[in-house]
Amino acid sequence: MISDDDIQIIHHLKIELHAKILAHNYQIPEVHAVADIIGDSLELALAARTTDAEILVVCGVSFMAETAKILNPEKRVFIPVPDAGCPLAEYLTPDIIAKYQQKYPEAAVVVYVNSSSACKAATDIVCTSGNALRIIRSLPHTTIIFGPDTNLAGYVREQVPDKEIIAIPANGHCYVHQQFTSDDIRTAREMGGMILAHPECPEHIRHNADIVASTGKMIQIITETDEPVWHIFTEEGMAKRLQALFPNKKFYSNKNAICRDMHKTTASDIIRSLQNLQGEIILDEESTRSARRALERMLKAS
Ligand code: 13P
Ligand code: SF4
User: Fold this and answer.
1) Per-residue three-class SS string for the chain
2) N or C: fewer beta carbons within 10 Å in the chain?
3) 155, 161, 162, 166: CA torsion to nearest 10
4) Whole-structure pTM over 0.90, yes or no?
5) CA neighbor of 234 nearest in space, from 41, 32, 31, 35
6) Closest ligand 1 atom to the C-alpha of 128?
7) Which ranges of the chain have pLDDT less than 70?
8) What is the pLDDT of residue 287?
9) Residue 36 dihedral angles phi and psi, to the nearest 5°
10) Is 213 in the pocket of ligand 2 (CB under 6 A)?
11) Is 43 in the pocket of ligand 1 (CB under 6 A)?
């Protein structure tokens, strides 16, 4: 639990530095308590683009802070815990993309935002879980090279059957979402209520869920649905966020579904980052130009 003193310190630092804190939905409650904007990957990218702050502190994992910096080269962007990464992003490299481009020269390359800046620079367009279907449908190509999440690729393949989706590499996945089991689904069904699953979940979970959605879309769906009980098949921080947003509803999640990197950031890290201007994202302009183009295409098509 964050102290009132820490809340005040962060509040004053934000005013003094003209800074804003952007936090992903999975962050721990004390980070949400001091955030200016809380959202999914797409919402954070859009917010980074529209805010007038001079300094952005991105509480999430490194690809989120890098995305904010790529889209705002004139702003100073900080990540309070620089080694908070996304293991899913590490499955893909520019070499793998190049290999498949050679094999399928007619295909478009779509890279999930959970990827390195170098991969974004090597792609035609980026997508998030919130806009993947829209992005794929917007492309004239019938063959799409898609990485690094094979589960999101599978979801897109099911929803956009007129396109051939080639998932690269063949084993890319998020360990947090991969661990859900049929027993988890069975238990949820016995308890009653609705099952909401993230598209990073494996096929057997997506197929048995009531709705598949990004974390941002989950909030929208729950707002619009008159159902008091929900089973959340994504990182467990999301269930905490939902419980705080909707105190009159009940949210259940698998307590083992913890993203170690998402839970690294604390209020003390934010204070340290703001006080010492520590954890700045520095990217060289030359190599990020292509990544910016791919991200801007995504925002335009969103
Ligand atoms: P969202 O964009 O849906 O929040 O997903 C990000 C993520 O890392 C999911 O694990
Ligand atoms: Fe990456 Fe999975 Fe953590 Fe999301 S939950 S940041 S995909 S490791």
Assistant:
1) CCCHHHHHHHHHHHHHHCEEEEEECCCCHHHHCCCCEEECHHHHHHHHHHCCCCEEEEECCHHHHHHHHHHCCCCEEECCCCCCCCHHHHHCCHHHHHHHHHHCCCCEEEEECCCCHHHHHCCCEEECCCCHHHHHHHCCCCEEEEECCHHHHHHHHHHCCCCEEEECCCCCCCHHHHCCCHHHHHHHHHHCCEEEECCCCCHHHHCCCCEECCHHHHHHHHHHCCCCEEEEECCHHHHHHHHHHCCCCEEEECCCCCCCCCCCCCHHHHHHHHHHCCCECCCCHHHHHHHHHHHHHHHHHC
2) N
3) 50
4) yes
5) 41
6) 2
7) none
8) 73
9) -90, -35
10) no
11) no
Ordered domains of the chain (ranges, CATH): 4-85+262-285 (3.40.50.10800), 89-173 (3.40.50.10800), 180-253 (3.40.50.10800)
Residue of 22, 38, 63, 129 with the most ligand 1 atoms within 8 Å of its CB, for mutation: 129
Q: Tokens 């929803």 label which residue? A: 159
- Ramachandran sector of residue 197 (left: φ over 0; alpha: ψ -120 to 50; beta: rest): beta
Return all residues near 56 (Cβ < 8 A) that are at least 6 apart: 19, 20, 21, 22, 48, 68, 72, 75, 76, 77, 78
Nearest CA to ligand 1 atom 3: 214
Cα separation, 178 vs 201, in Å, equals: 6
**Tell me, what's the pLDDT at 286?**
74
Q: What is the pLDDT of residue 88?
A: 98
CB atoms within 10 A of CB 128: 22
pLDDT in tens, 187-198: 999 999 999 999
